[in-house]
Design brief:
Layout lengths: L2 E5 L4 H12 L3 E6 L10 E5 L5 H8 L4 E4 L6 H4 L3 H22 L3 E7 L8 H21 L2 E7 L2 E2 L8 H11 L2 E4 L6 E2 L2 E2 H9 L5 H4 L2 E5 L5 E2 H12 L4 E4 L23 E2 L8 H16 L1
Parallel strand pairs: 1-2, 1-4, 2-3, 4-5, 5-6, 6-11, 7-10, 8-13, 11-14
Antiparallel strand pairs: 9-12
Protein name: UDP-glucose 4-epimerase
Keywords: Isomerase
EC number: 5.1.3.2
């Protein structure tokens, strides 16, 4: 059993990773600005902000491993908030890295994004690229071991309108006409958050192979956005008039088929043989949206 801190643990991915770590038998502490509605009896909640050095140092004290998921994670929101993106994503990460060095943390797991490969993604992409460089330099300078986890298109429960699949599904359930900023042929490798969390939590038990490595965590299959909408329609037995803005050659700031515009450090793709079926995952998410609307 290890002592593990998860930042951003009241949120979508962070809460699921915290649960996966707890189910593996680790002693998990959750660090976030607001209490987690998903806190388990065997978990500890620590309130604080990653931009506040004192609260970060207090949270990291006594921890062996740190999973860093706290961030301004909404790509669209970050487009118009460059200063906030730097303060939260970059400065917050550096605060945490320094605290980990001072506390003697064994390994730092950083939640990055496939957008680091891309020219798209705006200030969000810039922040993740910068953070990866800081993570690597802290290892070179101070010997803080790390694992970088670059997440792709996640979906599942415990999320909100900041999540792409949730946002599209919510609108499909409540509107008769809707527009999509990309093209009808846009493709994503969707992965259910439970699968991503399980893979992420395994890093600790696979230290010999994961230390100072970078992994890409995405789904096994490419799915066109037009096919995703077809799945919505078939599951809900509902028709919605769709307008794909990108088909008129207007850019959206998102990649269309692949994020790979250039490659920073090589990332190995982490996959699982057992994963949540997309149809089943969407049905679960529909139920979650319906429950929130009651």
């Amino acid at each position: 059993m290890a002592h593990v801190l998860v930042t951003g643990a009241s949120g979508f991915l962070g809460s699921h990773i915290a649960d996966a770590l707890s189910m593996q038998g680790h002693q998990v502490s959750l660090f976030d600005r607001v209490p987690s509605p998903y806190l388990r009896d065997d978990q500890q909640m620590i309130l604080g902000d990653i931009t506040d050095k004192a609260s970060v140092e207090k949270a990291v004290a006594g921890q062996e491993y740190v999973y860093h998921l706290a961030a301004l994670a909404d790509l669209n929101a970050a487009k118009t908030r460059p200063v906030d993106t730097v303060e939260i994503n970059v400065l917050g990460t550096v605060n945490l890295l320094k605290a980990c060095v001072d506390a003697g943390v064994k390994q730092f797991m950083f939640g990055s994004s496939v957008y680091v490969f891309s020219r798209e993604g705006g200030f969000y992409r810039c922040s993740k690229q910068a953070c990866e460089s800081y993570v690597e330099e802290f290892q070179n300078r101070y010997g803080l071991d790390y694992t970088i986890l670059r997440y792709g298109s996640l979906y599942g429960t415990r999320t909100d309108m900041a999540n792409g699949v949730y946002r599209l599904l919510y609108r499909y359930m409540n509107e008769t006409e809707m527009s999509y900023p990309g093209t009808s042929s846009d493709r994503r490798e969707y992965i259910h958050v439970l699968d991503a969390a399980k893979l992420s939590a395994q890093v600790i038990d696979r230290r010999e192979e994961t230390t100072n490595k970078t992994y890409v965590i995405t789904g096994n299959d490419h799915l066109a956005i037009s096919d995703l909408f077809k799945m919505f329609g078939e599951i809900l037995d509902r028709k919605v008039t769709l307008d794909f803005v990108g088909d008129r050659e207007q850019t959206s700031g998102h990649y269309s088929i692949t994020p790979y515009s250039y490659t920073p450090k090589l990332g190995r793709k982490m996959v699982t043989n057992e994963y949540v079926d997309m149809g089943q995952g969407l049905i679960e998410l529909i139920a979650d949206i319906q429950n929130q609307q009651k």
